[in-house]
Amino acid sequence: MNLAQSLLRVARADPRRPALFEGRRLLRDYGALADRVARLASAFHAAGLKPGDRVALFMHNHPAYLEVMYGAWWAGLVVVPMNAKLHLREAQWIVDHSQAVWAFITPDVGQGLPTPGRTIDVTGSEYEAMLAQPPAPMVERAPEDLAWLFYTSGTTGKPKGVMLTHRNLMTMGLTYFVDVDHIDPRDAIFYAAPMSHGGGIYAIPHVMAGARHVVPASGGFDAAEVFEVAGAIGRLSMFAAPTIVKRLVDHAEATGADCAGIKTIVYGGAPMYAADIQRAIRVMGQRFVQIYGQGESPMVITALSRSQLADTAHPRHAQRLASVGIAQTPVEVRVADPKGYPLPIGEVGEVLVRGDTVMAGYWRDADATAAALRGGWLFTGDMGELDADGFLTLKDRSKDMIISGGSNIYPREVEEVLLLAPGVAEVSVVGAPDPEWGEVVVAFVVPRPGFELDAAQLDDVCLQHIARFKRPKQYRIVDSLPKNNYGKVLKTTLRDQLKEDKS
After folding, report:
1. Structure letter (DSSP) for residue 177
2. Model pLDDT, residue 103
């Protein structure tokens, strides 16, 4: 079970099918892409790399990303994708911890990144020399063999290496067709989100379908570019964090851009508030599918389908809109107490998942593996509740829950309410230490342009919708919220700011 087999299958059946684009420009058909991948595999073999060796990718989005990724799999190697915005020292730590023997870089990042073997610029002559090798046959891999070694963001310490096998990723790819979206060979996936994460991992189902792969000429996300390319080549799909979705919606609303060329936007990676997805659908139409997953079960825990988002006549549509959908086909989802025992419907507990997409464990970290994988279940660290229909509503990470006066308060519930207030663009709720209550609720609120907000107005909205003890004790009106490279709000930074203000 080698993931590269799906590329070979398409290349043999229809070698002239368009495969890889940079913007609107066709670079390679499937025959040429598979040939280059096989030549890279040959170069790996010629240099002495063995099946199971790790190869790091420290690159911005680039057409060579797919070539190196599939070339490594073709040769039986393991891909170690790295966030291109990491500091060089952070990237070096991952290279050392993963024991990667080679690294591939783009010239804007990775210069000076040492490895035990070679550091290769994919825009340079050394990369082209690799492609001069004769094509190599594909290396057989077992389903449980490692394919993708993904390092978590490390917000609570050093990142952990999530071990994903060929079976994990093959199952993820096939699940896309069942639970996310049908892929037609005429479709195109647009890599605006980092290819080192969910955006790139969705290459797998699109290669399976023989669809087109489009790397933006800008190398990243630009809202105007998305609409321009969509209009030119059509049937565009993409993975997007909620921050990117909001920017697309803002652009479409401000410019009246035609959305016809955009087929599907799969959103995930951070909570999407009900008010935001309602606005997105109102402005751009029924083009959205929500997925919930983690690096430890990539892109596959639950999904909220296009039809479920569109079913406004359902009596629980509002609740479903605020959920992350139902369990995807190959996994089971449970809400459990700290020992892993299932909780009754409607009770909040930790979200657990098991199935063929769940990781094999953490690389060189037996203690973390034992803590996360217990009794066949992955303990996600996310808090949520299931309803009688199987829809999962996330509350927060367990570490983000606020305990005030002995009562549990889930920040997302407060955030959803504050987003109902006129003029609120973004909000993030955290707990601040308090000698009397243990913690109190603090809301950081970003106003929309041209709006002025005051605490009394926001407090009144909260009192209309949630219990008095849940409302914020402080409202901080700010210009922006601190976020990481993927659009997730850095609540740790907000909590640190509150501590500094008290000191």
Report:
1. I
2. 97
Comparing CA positions, the residue from 327, 329, 227 lying closest to residue 287 is 227
DSSP output for 325-393: -EE-TTEEEEEE-TTSPBPPTT--EEEEEEETTS-SEETT-HHHHHHHEETTEEEEEEEEEE-TTS-EE
Per the CB < 8 A criterion, the answer to whether 474 and 432 are in contact is yes
pLDDT (tens digit per residue) in 60-105: 999 999 999 999 999 999 999 998 888 888 899 999 999 999 999 9
Q: Measured between alpha carbons, how far is 250 from 264 in angstroms, rounded to an integer?
A: 17
Q: Which residues pair with 37 in a beta bridge?
A: none
> Measured between alpha carbons, how far is 180 from 189 in angstroms, rounded to an integer?
14
- What pairing do the DSSP bridges indicate for beta strands 377-386 and 54-58? unpaired
Residues contacting 388, CB < 8 A, separation 6+? 345
Q: How far is CA 27 from the centre of its chain?
A: 26
pLDDT digits (tens, 9 = 90+) for 235-268: 999 999 888 999 999 999 999 999 999 999 999 9
The pLDDT assigned to 486 comes to 63
Q: For the structural domain made of 5-392, what CATH number should be given?
A: 3.40.50.12780
DSSP 413: H
Cα separation, 155 vs 443, in Å, equals 21
Please report which helix (H) or strand (E) contains residue 416, including its range: helix 411-418
Q: How far apart are CA 378 and CA 293, in angstroms?
A: 12
Q: How far is CA 65 from CA 188, 354, 475, in A?
A: 16, 30, 44
Tens of pLDDT, residue by residue over 422-443, are 999 999 999 998 877 878 999 9
SS3 content of the chain, % helix, strand, coil (to 5): 35, 30, 40
How far apart CA 290 and CA 180 sit, in angstroms, is: 8
Give the containing element (helix H, strand E) for 81: strand 78-82
Task: Look at the block and give the residue holding tokens 């009106």.
Answer: 477
| C-beta of residue 281 within 8 angstroms of C-beta of residue 267 | no
Instruction: Return the CATH fold of 401-502.
Output: GMP Synthetase; Chain A, domain 3 (3.30.300)
Rounded-to-10 torsion of CA 310, 356, 376, 332: 20
Reported pTM? 0.85
Q: Which two tokens stand for residue 203?
A: 């290459």
- Domain parsing of the chain, residue ranges: 5-392, 401-502
Write down the pLDDT at residue 156.
46
| 429 DSSP β-pair partners | 443
